[in-house]
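As a warm-up, study this chain.
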Amino acid sequence: MSTDEVRRLLDEARRLNFVAYVAWGGEPLMRPDIMEILRHAHDLGFYTSIITNGTLLKDMAGEIAKVIDLTWVSLDCDSPFHSEMRGVEEAYEKALEGIRELKLARGRVAVNCVLSNLNPDVVPRMGALAKRYGLKLAFDPIQIFPETNAQHALSPSQRKRAFSEAAELKAKGYPILNSYEYLQNQTNLSFSCAQPRIFMDVSEDGKVKPFWCAKSDGALGDLRRQSLGEIVHSTPFQEFVEVANGCSLCSHSTTFETSIFYSVRRFLVNVYRPNSPYLKFIMDFALT
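Now compare it with the structure written out below.
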């Protein structure tokens, strides 16, 4: 999509009461007009964020700090082995340099660590790294795509151990963003997916698709032929709403955490807890 097409998308999304914009990819910072796009989203009043591997972050940190509410840096190990896993030379060192520069510029930054059978024992060390640098940290299991990366899936025992370790770190005061409900129930994540009410994924060619969905990845519309409003109210989109209702196939934290927020029963249970996870959520993502 051209710069103007993205700007028009953001304008319409704001009119339709969308509240947040996340740029990811691929690597969003490779796009020459990315700062113009992010600035436009920020000026429209969106909660604006990016997900980056951090290798290009250092030189752009000052600009990013001015317009991005939260920068997510993908970091899967606390050593140069991260670079080896990513297949990018000095990815680890460059990501840390970018994080330091962004924090110096008073930007808000968090780290996401994807766990696989390549790094199943990294949780305690990543917790120590997050604490040392003053970073919020979230963990996700690798999303498996058949015939692509199935060989890197965590075994059930690896998964249980890793997320139990993360829960223990959180209990000790480490800056872990995942909820206890997510960390402690990895073998039985029970929820009803609220994804269609929360997220919309727009690909680089203007196709609108389900966000990171294990059940359906077909296009729901095309922004080069339809308006965003037309897509939201279209038959394919409404059919996806029905497909997602009651589904709990996806195991990544984004869909789980936001889906339980949109569950009336779970919302009421959590909001009245002595240590409300929702108040903690606001503190983590909006006030710090």
